[in-house]
Amino acid sequence: MAKLLEARALEGLPHGFSKREGAAAQDILAGGVLIRVKQVHSPAVATVTGAWSGVPPEADAMVTDRAGLVLGIVTADCAPVLFADFDAGVVGAAHAGWRGAIQGVIANTVAAMAALGARPEKIVAVIGPCIAPESYEVDAPFRAHFAETDAQFFRAGRAGHWQFDLPGYVASRLEQAGVGWIESLNLDTYAEKAMFHSYRRASHSGETTGGRQISLIGLR
To answer: Is residue 43 part of a domain?
Structure first.
């Protein structure tokens, strides 16, 4: 059984954020069925009622109110976000890279949960291991994707470059969506080489970039 990172905000609910070794559905829920989507850095959200009968849909988030299903999102620097409304019995999982976050994957996940009976102010959300601002240098073309009102998420670095705060930006999107309780694990995938895969670190060092973590959540 894989040793997973857990969050205080989701205590009592089957969930976990994997390290380098990955994880399976049964690591959080005996007999759980793993559900994944084809992640494409989009704002699309899939509402899950059972295992897919064919090819998984293209989406970057999932929500469900069905027991026994384990939602799984894979990441390697992007932010995995796990959601739950304990009272409504609705959970969600989102892959929030900068593209998905800026396009609205967070707000869309909250809206999809609300369609199943969740209330935004009752939702708890946890931002899992992702690249930290100290490790995320970006250039002017990247900065141009964001509004001037997002300046707080860009710390000046070397000439023509900034350090981008992805977890901070995702947290702001959660706040805008009305989420009631936001927790961040504050773990840097780039810096913690022994613990996590990092796409950016692997690219910089000329290593294979295929490694991923998986973040899981389900309902008993």
So the answer is: yes
